[in-house]
Amino acid sequence: TAESVSIAALTNYLTRRGGASRDQIDAIFRALDTDANGEISRTEFRLGYVRYRAMRLALGSGFATGGLQM
Prior knowledge:
This protein is mainly alpha-helical. Helix content is 56%, strand content 9%. It has helices spanning 7-17, 22-32, 42-51, 53-59, and strands spanning 4-6, 39-41. The protein has a two-stranded antiparallel sheet.
């Protein structure tokens, strides 16, 4: 939904940015999907963005400029 990010959307975004392996993307997704429902909600994303410096570096400013849409 527009209120969440799927593993496919995260994979697509991080693959386009380059440098992230499938294992790394899976680890990021698992870390952010705290309720393990297969989607990252806005709340989960915001909490992860604040908590995980590596995720901020991986996603960069592309999230804010429309790279990864919610």
